[in-house]
Specification:
Number of helices: 8
Helix content: 25-40%
CATH architecture of the largest domain: 3-Layer(aba) Sandwich
Number of strands: 13
Radius of gyration: 20 Å
Number of domains: 2
Structural class: alpha/beta
Order of helices and strands: EHEHEHEHEHEEEEHEHHEEE
């Protein structure tokens, strides 16, 4: 997922960027309102974290520009303007949440996760090759054969199918499926990936769940060039 941080104070922007990247997100940074507007129109962001006190354009004007787009990312206002009237004004003009400075990063991260979950589209079905996942009925089939999955296995598979061809770190999987921080000591992701492989891949010639060395896992239909760039099938 790609986030845009709009913040003119370099110290705060660097702090936010490092923290969000450590949590597994791709992060872009804009230090002016005009830069933010250009970036939002050029890139599809999953979330915008917006300071109101920008050097060139008031943050609420930036918010209006964002909300005028056809595809609207959720916006979390992060501002030193702490009066009730300021918070109400921001929310009434289209912000999805409002967090006052100074703030605890863990709270910002929790609020960001809520907005990201809320903003994710939920198509009725996902399909990769002969693998189909029915999001509404919560059923999985491969080559028209029904596959029974436990709730967490289903959630991991859905997350991987939504991100087909994108390497997902263990941190990203844990934070998405379990909504908790990954301490690097547990092998819970590897255990569940082995379970998924036994159900999704073991009976079939074409393997879809791949280990990406040094990163984590990826779901896709394999191509010969993939294996030359650090992607392996079959082992967790």
């Amino acid at each position: 997922m790609r986030l845009l941080v709009v913040e003119d104070e370099k110290r705060i922007a660097d702090f936010l960027t490092r923290g969000l990247q450590s949590a597994g997100y791709a992060v872009d940074f804009a230090h002016t309102g005009n830069d933010a507007i250009e970036r939002v129109h050029a890139t599809e962001y999953d979330l915008v974290i917006l300071d109101l006190g920008l050097p060139d354009v008031d943050g609420l004007q930036v918010l209006q520009k964002i909300k005028n787009r056809k595809t609207i990312p959720p916006v979390l206002i992060l501002s030193a303007r702490d009066s009730v009237d300021d918070r109400v004004k921001g929310l009434e003009q289209g912000a999805d949440d409002y967090l006052v400075k100074p703030f605890a990063f863990v709270e910002l991260l929790a609020r960001a996760r809520v907005l990201l979950r809320r903003g994710q589209p939920t198509p009725e079905k996902l399909q990769v090759g002969d693998l189909t996942l029915d999001c509404i009925r919560r059923k999985v089939t491969r080559s028209n054969e029904s596959i029974e999955l436990a709730p967490k296995e289903f959630s991991i598979l859905e997350y991987m199918m939504r991100n087909r061809g994108r390497p997902l770190s263990r941190t990203m999987i844990v934070e998405h499926v379990w909504d908790m921080d990954y301490d690097g000591l547990t092998n819970i992701v590897d255990v569940y990936i082995r379970h998924l492989r036994s159900k999704i891949d073991d009976k079939f010639v074409t393997k879809m769940i791949h280990t990406v060395r040094g990163i984590g896992y990826m779901l896709d239909i394999p191509e010969m060039h993939s294996y030359a760039s650090g992607v392996d099938a079959g082992t967790a």
